[in-house]
Structure formats: C-alpha cells, structure tokens
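Progress report, Aim 2. The chain analyzed during this reporting quarter is listed below.
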Amino acid sequence: MPKYFYTAKTADGKTVKGDSIAESTHELFQKLKDSNLILITALQEGAKGKNLFNLSILGNVPVIEKILMTRNLSVMVSTGLSLVNSFEVLSMQAKNKKLKNALLNVKEQVNKGKSLSESLSSYPDIFSQFFLSMVKVGEESGTLEDILKILAQHLEREHRLKSEIKGAMIYPCIVLGMMVAVGAVVAVVVLPRLNSFFKGVGAEIPFYTKILIALGDFSVKNWPFLIIAPVVLGFLIWMWAKTKTGKRALDTIFLRIPLISSLVKKNNCAIFIRSLSSLLSAGVPLTKSLDVVHGTVGNFYFKKALSGSLERIKKGERLSKTLQPYSDIFPVGALEMIEVGEETGKTSNVLKTLADFYEEELIRTTSKLSSAIEPVLLIALGLAVGFFAFSIIEPMYSSLQSIR
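Predicted structure tokens for the chain:
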C-alpha cells in the first residue's frame, strides 16, 4: 500500500503533519476522521510534489452556482478527496469568474495550512457569516460532510422561496409597465401631433386632454430631467434606507400595511426559523446560533427581538419565553410551536417543520395576492386605455363638428 504525507487540522484548529499507510486518500481521510482530524492535504510518497487532497465554498455570486458548488463539495469530501484537489475541481467547474478566482485562492490558503473557514472568511461578499459559522462547526466537530449537505439544502430552500415570490409578482409588474408605456406614448407622441390639428380647426379641447397635452409638452422639453430625477431620487432613497433611521422607518411602514404586513412577518419568520434550525442541527450552541441568525434577518424589529432574546437566554431563560414580548411580529402559532419543541427536546426538528410550513404559506399567500391583484390591474389598465382614447376621440369629434 502507498504511503501518504499529510497535513490535517485538529478540532481546536491546530495543524498536524505526519505520514500514514493507506490504499487511497479516501481510506486516509477516514482514518484521520476516526482520530478527530480533518485531512487538508495529502501527498503520495514518490509523487512529484502533486497534492492529492483539499477544500472550499460559496459566496455573492449566482445562487445556483453556490448550491451546485456546495453540493459537489459535500460529495467530494464524503469520497475522501482532499480539500486542495476538491477546490481545484470546483474552480474548474465554476462559470462565474469571481467565484472561480475565490476558489483558487482558498485552495492556496488551505494548502498553506489555514483552516477552511479562515480561508473562506477572506471573501465576506461571497460567503456569508452564516455559511462560515456552519463550516467552522463542521471542521471542529469532524462532521464537515454532513454540514455541507445541510448547507446545500438550506440554500436550495432559500432560493426556491425567493424564486416563487418573484415569479408571482412578474405578471402584475408587466401590467403596470404596460399602463405606463401606453400613457407615455399617448401623452408624448400622439396628443402633441393632434394638438396642432385641433388648434387649426378651432376645436374645443376638454380640460383633461389639455392636461395630457401639457404633460406631453413638458416631457418632451424636459426629458433629461425626467430620466435623471427618478434615478437620483431612487439612489437617495436607497442610501437613506441603509441608515438605521431609514431602515427602521421602512420596516415600521411595511409591518403596518395590512396585506404587506403578513408577508413581511412570514418571510422574516421563515428565514429566522430555517437558519436557526440548520445551525442547531449542525450542533451550534443556541446562543451562537442566535448571534449568527441576527445577521441573516433583514427586518429591524426581528433583529431587535433576537438581540433581546439572546441576552435573556444567556441568563438561563428558554427561547420561547424570551420571544414572548415580541409576539406581535411573529405569525400566530410560531412561538407555541417553538415551546413544544423545547418541551419535547426536538427543537431542531420542530423548527425545520415550522420553517417548511411558513415557506409554503408565504408562497401561497404571495400567489393569492398576485391572483387578487391581476383582475384589479386589468380593470385599471382598461380604464386607463379608455381614458386616453376618450381624451383623443372627444376633441376629434369636436373638430369634425367645427368643420361641418
């Protein structure tokens, strides 16, 4: 059997180098795993300096690529392929240039003895704090293969949820876009050309047609302003929304709008519960899990609830009890289910079931809202087209009367 020179990591992050006899890198990986070591690199005796093993992961690139990368990495780790070689393969598979470069650099850092989580932390715009925490737990507990599977499932569920919501809102956005386009064409192109004809024959022009003509003239004369102003305004609103005051104001508004409020609560609750479930099932302590989840939820009030809960949990209180003061921002039944999970000792499983429920509920609610909006938008579009048509037909009829 061949002899391998290896570099491995202990649970507390120390680097261990040595040699061992094994039939393959997979057998070497399993032998080291039984000794609570994580294989980083492996070089077969007699090989020309060619590493046979290594590892890396995901970031701020297309979500599909992240999911595929995480899933493939899980398979490679389970087969015993070294982290170095795994990342080399992953970098060749990656289509996104940014991800490819990151994976190659992570491979080099791991090859030099850094831990995987430490190497991935060099790319915070690609690998979230949630992702890094999960990987670190996998390294420390020797369950990296299982952690990667959980991460892949987490990313897939998250991507599916966002895709379903976006898909449900496409049709209403198209209808609104058509309304704006019809209005712009009538006001800017059609009416200005007819206006000179109306004036020539002395036709009486209704006040609403005059308003549309005035808007069209203003748009033609000031089109640079009309293009630049919305962009600048949108940028200013975006910058304001990133401030603490702006974020809090927007989140307050969203939680008070009747239809939107339910969606916001279910969305943030699903993210919170899904992330917490993944972390707990990976063996992350509750306090550390809540600290990580705090960075995954976007709503100001959910962040506040997690911060308050974390402080009380450190004093020995249970999660369900610490969240009770914030029951108004959680959907009905959520806190009761969390309490059941704590009492039965199956918090992680209950949270996973609860996350599945709220994700499906959010998708159904969004679809229903989209279906309810569609006929309203179609009626509004019909009324808008009718208004524009009437604004043209009435003065034209008046013009014919003047000619006669």
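DSSP finds 16 helices and three strands in the chain. The two ends are 107 Å apart (CA to CA). These observations will guide the mutagenesis work planned for the next reporting period.
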